Every structure is written in C-alpha cells, then in structure tokens.
Amino acid sequence: DGGITQSPKYLFRKEGQNVTLSCEQNLNHDAMYWYRQDPGQGLRLIYYSQIVNDFQKGDIAEGYSVSREKKESFPLTVTSAQKNPTAFYLCASGTGGLYTGELFFGEGSRLTVL
Amino acid sequence: AQSVTQLGSHVSVSEGALVLLRCNYSSSVPPYLFWYVQYPNQGLQLLLKYTSAATLVKGINGFEAEFKKSETSFHLTKPSAHMSDAAEYFCAVTRNTGGFKTIFGAGTRLFVKA
C-alpha cells in the first residue's frame, strides 16, 4: 500500500543528545514536510522540501536539521540546540501544487526528553 | 499573510445533534482551504477541500463545508453527530511564499456525548 512511514513511533532522549526521526514515502510525491504539534497550538511547519537536494526553513526551524538526498526520504534531526523538543512530530508529503494542496500524513513520532 | 482561526478549542455535542466547527481565514488572494481530522496518536486525514470549483464542498463521513468569501469563513458541518466523529479537527489554508506551504489552525476537539 502507498503511504508514509514514520519511525520510531515513540522516542525518549536525554538532554544534550541529537535524535533523528525517519520519514519514508512511496507515493512518488515531490514535496515533503515536517510539522511539530503541541497541545492547543495546531501544527507548526519546521522544514519543507519541494524537490530532491533542496529544502527550506519553515516557521520554527531553529534547533532542527533535515536532508533530502532521495525523493522517498526526508529525515529530521532534532539537535541539542532545540530548547523544548518534547512534542509530536508529523511528516507529510504532497504533490507540491497549490491547486491540489492535499497533504498525506504519517502516523507521527512522539519525542520525549527526559 | 495568510492565517487561519478556529473558534473554540473544544466543542461538545450529543449524538445525533448538528456538528458545527468554525473556521475563519485571512488571505489577500482567493485561498485554497482544507479540513483535516486527527484521531488520537495518529496523523491527519483529509476530510474535504475547497479549490474554487463550488462554494459548498462535500467530504467524507457526511461532513461538508461552505466557503463564504464575504465572511472569510469555511465552517465545517455535519447534520447528525456519531460517536465515531469524536476527534480533533483542523482547518488549513495553502499559501505560496517560496513554495507551497499549508498553514493550520490551532484545532478544535470534538466530543460526542451518548
């Protein structure tokens, strides 16, 4: 089945450690996105990529990094510079067009900093 | 700049009652608007989208939304609530600033009472 796979579903991290969240899609979509979800704040855009080997900062990119070496993959690294990393992280993909605009989401990764 | 405001972080209805979830947007150009639903610990799923073809948009699970330009609103309705409708609902707008990005409202959690 086509879709987006995020892993791990749950992750615990000690302060000062970097962690990488995986996102893989087999929908042949050009665009991929990372959102952060906190209670009462909706989804906030961290990074997005419209094409392989290119990506742009979203609204809350500080303390995060990404890469887009393959069309199918868009991993997110939460670095030690991120002051409040505990959150639910959602990866999405789309065709990148304004008209369609529909995003397809993974099941999410919940990161907890101990 | 485009933004989305959802009125009411929590809405409670009785089973069989009308569901009304409110969404207002601000946009300098005609927008593309979406409603997504999220069940606990899962990703988001598209309910419906407005792309200027018709002002009344029908989606999945009996939901529909009406685009009202004069009121800058895109409220989500369902004539009769079902227990399975209990979830969080997000209104979203797509903007094009150096790439197509989707901006989400803060979300409205719907509770359905038996």
How many helices of chain B? The count is 0
Please count the beta strands of chain B (DSSP E, at least 2 residues each): 11
- What class do helices, strands and sheet pairing of chain A give? mainly beta
What's the SSE pattern of chain B? EEEEEEEEEEE
Q: In oligomeric terms, what are we looking at?
A: heterodimer
Q: What global shape of chain B is seen?
A: globular
Instruction: Say how many strands of chain A there are.
Output: 11
Biggest sheet layout of chain B:
6 strands, mixed
Structural class of chain B: mainly beta
Overall mean confidence score, pLDDT of chain B? 90
Characterise this structure:
Chain A is mainly β and 114 residues long. Chain A is 0% helix and 49% strand. In chain A, strands 2, 4, 5, 6, 9, 10 and 11 form a seven-stranded mixed β-sheet that branches. In chain A, strands 1-3-8-7 form a four-stranded antiparallel β-sheet, with no helix packed on it. The mean pLDDT of chain A is 91. At the A-B interface, strand 4, strand 5 and strand 9 of A face strand 4, strand 5, strand 9 and strand 10 of B.
Summary keywords:
heterodimer, A: 114 residues, mainly beta, seven-stranded mixed β-sheet, globular, B: 114 residues, five-stranded antiparallel β-sheet, 59% strand
Secondary structure elements and their pairing?
The complex is a heterodimer of chains A (114) and B (114).
Chain A: E1 4-7, E2 10-13, E3 19-25, E4 31-37, E5 43-51, E6 54-57, E7 64-66, E8 76-78, E9 87-94, E10 104-105, E11 109-113
Parallel strand pairs in A: 2-11
Antiparallel strand pairs in A: 1-3, 3-8, 4-5, 4-9, 5-6, 7-8, 9-10, 9-11
Chain B: E1 3-7, E2 10-14, E3 19-26, E4 32-38, E5 44-50, E6 56-58, E7 64-68, E8 73-78, E9 87-96, E10 100-104, E11 108-113
